[in-house]
Specification:
globular, 4 helices, alpha+beta, six-stranded mixed sheet
């Protein structure tokens, strides 16, 4: 398993651990140089968004992956965690609907967690 697949799988597991809603994995490596995978999820409220972010940072950190940068802060309704080959987006429900990244990146390939094995 290559590093980007491993990071993506760990991030998805971390989001699942905290009951992230509608977790989507988009393979963008053939259409963009910015990353291999976008992972998109949302929380039901700001506390869950914080818990999702903490879970991803903890799980990836324990496996030796540190974010290159994080955009947004604890009061944000959209937090982006850039791990280089994997970018994790955690939204509030409302902002996810508004920004609709899945539509913007529809040329990417939707993949399942099992396909990351």
């Amino acid at each position: 398993m290559n590093d980007s697949k491993k990071m993506a799988k760990l991030a998805v597991e971390a989001l699942e651990d905290k009951k992230g809603e509608d977790i989507q994995i988009i393979d963008i490596k053939d259409i963009s140089v910015i990353a291999d995978y976008f992972i998109i999820s949302n929380g039901a409220n700001s506390l869950q968004v914080d818990a999702l972010v903490d879970s991803v940072m903890d799980k990836l950190g324990r496996n030796g992956y540190e974010p290159l940068r994080i955009e947004g802060n604890r009061s944000s309704s959209w937090i982006l965690m850039d791990y280089g080959d994997v970018v994790v987006h955690v939204f509030s429900r409302e902002d996810r609907l508004f920004y609709n990244l899945e539509r913007i990146w529809r040329d990417g390939k939707a993949v399942s967690k099992e396909q990351l094995d």
